[in-house]
Amino acid sequence: MSFTVTTCIACSGVMSPLYESMFDDRYGYPGYFNIYRCPSCKQSQTTPLLRDEDLPGLYGNYYPRREIDIEALQRQVGNPSSPEEIKKRRLNGTDNQGQYKAQPGMRVLDYGCGAGASLLEIEALGAEAYGIETDPNVQQVIDKLGLRIHIGTLDDAPFHGVLFDLIVLNQVLEHIPRPEELLEKLRALLKPGGKLVLSFPNANSIFSRVFKRTWINWHIPYHLHHFTPKSARFFLEHCGWKIISLRTITPNLWTILQFRALIETTTMGQSNPMWTGRLVVCAGANQLAVQPSWLYRQLSRFALSASHPLPNLALTLLDRTIDKLGWGDSLLIELEPVS
């Protein structure tokens, strides 16, 4: 890990500590981290900052992709261009992903494609799909489905000579130690007239302001940079990109997990069954240091009931209202390079 960086990547301001002693409350990566924030544009950063060479071990050993249900992966794709699926995505807030901008005949790169569900959707939309992923666990998907996924980074020069109409990064840029360098490399892979679509958490969302250090999208230490709409504009324009559109979208599932996370906690170095799906029995795990408030208990109960019609309707109305106000938990930004 590198030394603490206190210069804002968005506006070059001097950052100051916001939250101390944060830890991986999902998958149990050991160690404590701090979050620094710029007082001007509100850009935040996790420190110490991970390096590129730290990422394969972090994701290979701790991120929950060691066992991928490939058949379930294929079943979830459906028909992404159908009116029913489009409506469903809008209601559920799952349209916060760039692959839905793909059109027939396009050549599309998903950088940080995960297990490859987005590539299957891109192909279902009639486009040609390529992916790059650092997690070596994804090799099992490549072997089974034959998807064009390169395990590694752009520095490996994958897909030599191929240019793209569309490049998407779904919840990826916040994971990259030096995002400005990645954006410059991606620019060179776009065809003339090509577009870049980014999605990442909104560090100025209503949930980040209300729940503060318990906001789930700090996601320590996997999320390194925490953008707000203001800081994202500064950063992207400084990197030579023109913003075509910017809006917030809150996946209903994120809200469910946020409310549950207020109660279902863990301790440093221990994985959390809420995120892993595996029960961990050990001293200290899933024990709250402070008794949760009445409000937090009610929010958690609401989240657990959200599969029922009335709570689900309430959840959908809540999240879509938050998005309409621009306070949503995820940003979706469409860009083109400045010539």
Essential attributes:
single chain, 11 strands, 339 residues, 7-stranded mixed β-sheet, Rossmann fold, alpha/beta
Helix content: 25-40%
Calculate Rg over CA atoms: 20 Å
Rounded mean pLDDT is: 91
Q: Report the major sheet.
A: 7 strands, mixed
CATH architectural label = 3-Layer(aba) Sandwich
What is the CATH topology descriptor? Rossmann fold
What number of domains? 1
Poorly predicted residue ranges? 279-289
Please give the number of β-strands. 11
**What is the end-to-end distance?**
36 Å
- Strand fraction equals 15-25%
CATH superfamily: Vaccinia Virus protein VP39
SS summary, helix count: 12
**Which strand order does the major sheet show?**
6-5-4-7-8-11-10
| Secondary-structure element order, N to C | EEEHHHEHEHEEHEHEHEHHHHE
Describe what this molecule looks like in 3D:
The protein has 339 residues and is an alpha/beta fold. The protein has a single domain, classed as 3-Layer(aba) Sandwich (Rossmann fold). Helices cover 31% and strands 20% of the residues. The chain has 12 helices and 11 strands. The chain has helices at 55-62, 70-75, 83-92, 117-124, 139-145, 179-187, 206-211, 229-238, 252-261, 273-276, 294-304, 309-324, and strands at 16-22, 33-37, 44-47, 107-111, 128-133, 149-151, 164-170, 190-201, 225-226, 241-249, 330-337. The strands form 2 sheets. It has a 7-stranded mixed sheet with strand order 6-5-4-7-8-11-10, sandwiched between helices. The longest helix has 16 residues, at 309-324. The radius of gyration is 20 Å and the shape is globular. The chain starts with 15 loop residues before the first strand and ends with a strand. The relative contact order is 0.15.
